[in-house]
Amino acid sequence: MIEAIFFLSIGFTETRVLFARIRPLRLQSSIMIVSGILPYVVATRAAGTFDPHAFLILLGLCTVISCWYWVLPRRIAYDVGFLIVVAAVIVLRVFGWLYVSPMPRLKIDILGHLMWIRLAIIAMLVQRGWDVGPVSFWPKRREWQLGVIQYVLMIVPLFLFGWLVHLVSFSPKQGDFVRIAGSAIGTFFGILWVVALSEELFFRGVIAKALLEWKKSMGIAIGVSSLIFGSAHLWMRDFPNWKMACSATIAGIFFARAYFLGGSVRAAMVTHALTVTTWRMLFR
Fold first, then answer.
1. Which tens digit of pLDDT belongs to each residue from 30-75?
2. Domain tally, the chain
3. Do 154 and 272 fall within a single domain?
4. Is the pTM of this model over 0.70?
């Protein structure tokens, strides 16, 4: 619940503006560090799984990401370094090692993932001041429409490719309709507000937009950012997963189109969430 409150705060412009008013900058960073380790301490102390070594590693990670733009200049080179650090921690699944579950089949490392996404977004949007367009949890009507349109345009070529390379097979979820519908709705909003929010913000809002401003070419911005997005999926399951990387690259093209057409990550979030929900509910 503590992490949920912290995470929800990043989805409101008013909260981010209020946090940006805190001065000096080192105080912002200190608050970010404390908020990063607090859920871990509460959860592991209560469960009896607190590990001082894991705590120190987590403290170090929170310090690096929270102090990055307090210590380092606001330049593209340092932005690239920041994104590499953020991605490396996720790809290496560091939080799976640090957050030890007190019982079988209960994964508490989600606390680490939410915390990491939250601190990275605050660092980039508030401390760095990067303009990615409007950021919030709920898309506007036009953004819903754009997101759905790009999804419809993408769905056939994407899953046709997945079928041809034997990445997926058609296997709809079986069971009670109410449970399946509830699972689909829960999957959609879970992806929309966590995975899609974070990935669209960094891959489209930061990387694709930076490429557009640098090369002044929409094609290059969409193509290169989609390739980078695809390469991040090489680590899914068995490395190197070229089939998944190629599929993610195809999807990334349509996610980027939704972002640039809507001028907001929220349109791309809709396309992203619909894609993953379709994959999980209808394919195996």
1. 999 999 999 999 999 999 999 999 999 999 999 999 999 999 998 8
2. 2
3. yes
4. yes
